[in-house]
């Protein structure tokens, strides 16, 4: 993590000022939240529509901060503590992170995409971690605040850092890429997330492609080669080092065989037809993420044996096809972290492919931020659910009613139900589910569908 004197920090933030009395004060790490601040931290007070972190500077010092930033336009600056005066505390945080990144020898892997970026981040870190000292984005710190904090948490001895980059509008990925200056930039895919803000899949592709803006001059760009929207943008670019992954044999990396098994997914890759990779994740769609991770591992000269080891010991961020074995004999696939039409279809197809279970129950909730076509997208999900492969469909939320309306046209009476109350849904689910059954949970983050798991325990 960032360990510097205030004089060093002042040099890293253009236009900032400090009282020379405090120039030798050493800071160890950076925090923007007094609830989690640690002794020795530099506190960065951020300002939003409904909060102002400058009001908590005294509290930050009381909890162990040794210095703080202070925006010059904020009144009543304390006079008895070490402060660095800056024009804007958020911009200063970003400038500090960028300056620190340029001082490090760490190689940065930047990952974005509509779906799968967190799982891909976890895979890359696991594969590289078999050989190198690696850090990765913690939790979901992937925005204009989270990425700077991720960079500032890097240890000086870290050899590779895997940095997830998220966005909701144009210009955001460009900012993050420019801050991180990745050695490798990856786009996992182009889906429908953020259609409400970006208007079309073309707009989403344009926004995601911004990740190349900060790519090192000799850096490697890895992308989903089956996506025409990305192909077109690559052709118009001046990128010199490019690799692709996908299902089609025109890609640099593509699967020869995929087998979804009870304990995970096994697959082979064109580069090594006699080697089988196995990962403790369920679903063919995760193989695309794995191919991107393999491309990065080869860039870093990780051999096949270490790649296989990395997949076997893979630990992914919670609520990404997380398998939960309940004491009552019911299995739950908790994939409730987020959802788009692309990832919803993949999850339902996975549930349909699984064998060895008495009943298969899909619990699906609203997919958010889909714009004017949101009901159409939900209807299309309802139309694709196969009653020959899935036994029950329980929906939660106003938009998800459209899933139920379409699915009920083909399912037996009572096997498709729509809810607006999680307690009622969980109560009915307990009557349906028995030992040997499997349940899928899938919805956008705002629906908090995972709460149904705790309700089942009551």
Topology (elements, then pairings):
Layout: E1 3-5, H1 6-12, E2 17-18, E3 26-28, E4 30-31, E5 42-43, H2 57-62, E6 67-71, E7 83-86, H3 89-103, E8 107-112, H4 117-128, E9 134-136, H5 146-152, E10 160-164, H6 172-180, E11 184-187, H7 195-198, H8 201-209, E12 220-224, H9 228-236, E13 242-245, E14 255-261, E15 264-269, E16 272-279, H10 285-299, H11 304-312, E17 322-325, E18 331-334, H12 341-353, E19 360-365, H13 374-384, E20 392-396, H14 401-407, E21 416-419, H15 422-432, E22 438-442, H16 451-456
Parallel strand pairs: 4-5, 5-6, 6-7, 8-10, 8-11, 9-10, 11-12, 12-13, 18-22, 19-20, 19-22, 20-21
Antiparallel strand pairs: 1-3, 2-7, 14-15, 15-16, 17-18
Helix pairs in contact: 3-5, 4-10, 4-11, 13-14
Question: What does this protein look like?
Answer:
It comes from Anoxybacillus suryakundensis. The chain starts with a strand and ends with a helix. Helices cover 33% and strands 21% of the residues. The chain is globular, with a radius of gyration of 24 Å. It has 16 helices and 22 strands. The model has no long low-confidence stretch (mean pLDDT 93). α4 (117-128) packs across α10 and α13 (374-384) packs parallel to α14.
Task: Give a short overview.
This protein is of the alpha/beta class and 458 residues long. The chain has helices spanning 6-12, 57-62, 89-103, 117-128, 146-152, 172-180, 195-198, 201-209, 228-236, 285-299, 304-312, 341-353, 374-384, 401-407, 422-432, 451-456, and strands at residues 3-5, 17-18, 26-28, 30-31, 42-43, 67-71, 83-86, 107-112, 134-136, 160-164, 184-187, 220-224, 242-245, 255-261, 264-269, 272-279, 322-325, 331-334, 360-365, 392-396, 416-419, 438-442. The chain has three domains: 3-88, MurE/MurF, N-terminal domain (Udp-n-acetylmuramoylalanyl-d-glutamate--2,6- Diaminopimelate Ligase, Chain: A, domain 1, 3-Layer(aba) Sandwich), CATH 3.40.1390; 104-312, UDP-N-acetylmuramoyl-L-alanine:D-glutamate ligase (3-Layer(aba) Sandwich), CATH 3.40.1190.10; 322-456, Alpha-Beta Complex (Protein-Tyrosine Phosphatase, Chain A), CATH 3.90.190.
């Amino acid at each position: 993590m960032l360990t510097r004197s205030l004089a060093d920090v002042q040099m890293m933030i253009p236009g900032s000022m400090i009282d020379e009395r405090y120039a030798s004060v050493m800071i160890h790490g950076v925090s923007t939240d007094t609830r989690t601040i640690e002794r020795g931290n530099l506190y960065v007070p951020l300002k939003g529509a409904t909060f102002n972190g400058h009001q908590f500077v005294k509290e930050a010092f009381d909890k162990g901060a040794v210095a703080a930033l202070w925006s010059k336009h904020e009144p009543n600056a304390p006079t008895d503590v070490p402060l660095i005066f800056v024009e804007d505390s958020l911009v200063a945080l970003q400038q500090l992170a960028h300056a620190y990144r340029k001082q490090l020898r760490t190689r940065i892997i930047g990952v974005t995409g509509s779906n799968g970026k967190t799982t891909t981040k976890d895979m890359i870190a696991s594969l590289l971690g078999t050989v190198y000292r690696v850090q990765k984005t913690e939790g979901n710190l992937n925005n204009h605040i989270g990425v700077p904090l991720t960079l500032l948490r890097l240890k000086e001895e870290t050899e590779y850092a895997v940095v997830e980059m998220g966005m909701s509008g144009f210009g955001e990925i460009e900012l993050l890429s420019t801050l991180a200056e990745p050695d490798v930039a990856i786009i996992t895919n182009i889906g429908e997330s953020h259609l409400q803000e970006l208007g079309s899949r073309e707009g989403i592709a344009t926004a995601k492609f911004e990740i190349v803006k900060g790519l090192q001059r000799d850096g490697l760009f890895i992308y989903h080669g089956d996506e025409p929207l990305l192909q077109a943008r690559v052709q118009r670019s001046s990128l010199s080092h490019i690799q692709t992954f996908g299902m089609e044999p025109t890609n640099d990396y593509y699967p020869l065989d995929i087998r979804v098994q009870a304990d995970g997914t096994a697959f082979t890759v064109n580069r090594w037809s006699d080697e089988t990779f196995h990962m403790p994740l369920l679903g063919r769609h995760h193989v695309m993420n794995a191919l991107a991770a393999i491309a990065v591992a080869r860039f870093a000269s990780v051999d096949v044996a270490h790649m296989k080891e990395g997949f076997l010991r893979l630990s992914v961020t919670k609520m990404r096809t997380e398998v939960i074995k309940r004491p009552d004999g019911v299995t739950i696939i908790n994939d409730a972290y987020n959802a788009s039409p692309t990832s919803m279809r993949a999850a339902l197809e996975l549930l349909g492919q699984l064998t060895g279970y008495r009943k298969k129950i899909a619990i699906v909730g609203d997919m958010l931020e889909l714009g004017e076509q949101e009901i159409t997208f939900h209807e299309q999900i309802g139309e694709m659910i196969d009653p020959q492969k899935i036994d029950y469909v329980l929906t939660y939320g106003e938009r998800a009613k459209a899933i139920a309306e379409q699915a009920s046209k083909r399912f037996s009476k009572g096997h498709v139900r729509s809810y607006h109350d999680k307690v009622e849904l969980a109560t009915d689910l307990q009557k349906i589910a028995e030992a040997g059954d499997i349940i899928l949970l899938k919805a956008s983050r705002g629906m908090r569908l995972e709460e149904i798991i705790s309700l089942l325990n009551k």
